Amino acid sequence: MISALSKEFFLYLSKSKILNRAAKKWGLRLGASQVVAGNSLETMIVKVRELNEKGLVCTLDHLGEFVSSEEEASAATAAAIRTLEAIAEEGLNSHLSVKLTQLGVDIDREFCVHNMGSILETAQRYENFVRIDMEDYSHYKITLDILQELRENFQNVGTVMQAYLFCAEEDIQKLQGIPLRIVKGAYKESPKVAFQHKKEIDENFINLIKIHLLSGNYTAVATHDHHMIARVKQFVEEQQIPRNQFEFQMLYGFRTELQQSLADEGYKMRIYVPYGSDWFAYYMRRLAERPQNVSFALKGFFLK
Question: What is the pTM of this model?
């Protein structure tokens, strides 16, 4: 059972700029190599090709947080564009995932929108799709606002809806026609805006999936919970929802046997594949979700 204390501890560490900078010098330590597909584009390409050969599709995330200058945001934009180019050049079956904070939304909104436009133009040229990852609640509204602005010119962009937010059901009704990834949520949010108990989050998670699917929208069901997956499989069968209207998504390195079994059953199974040197905050949030991995992580640290 995940203790609230453990979760809060790892989420606290994930926000440390000092530890994040140090981790870039460490390389992939603390067991992070199990869930991050390498530091470089070249290493990532090898990993994605291996997944594709197993019948698994991907979405790539060039990791990066704590962006505080336009230069850093521009570099992140260039990295995202290069990732899209590599997907096309290497013939990989993968989308792209990006975070608006990495692209400068906290520096200047219009600057961030411009960066997203450059990324989406590249993706459009290669007939690819870009997902805007949802971050903490302080970025929730601006993310949806920017998404709606981008959708005026680009149809190849979607975002994420977090089931622990009270407002998720109302907002998902406003996102008709937009491909959404539906998740439970990985940040620590106030009881004023988010459910705090697993049972409530689980029920809202299923509720949001049903709403989006029944409205005819493409839906990415992102969970490692086999109970939730079984409920979705039963629902789409009962409602005769075609398999080309939804997919399952999981994180790289987690529940790999379940990933493969879903793909073997004929479901589209997309793996969220993070890569790059800026891995620390991402990994701490994964430990917050699964602190049972801590002993393994520490063992990985001391053995290197």
Answer: 0.87
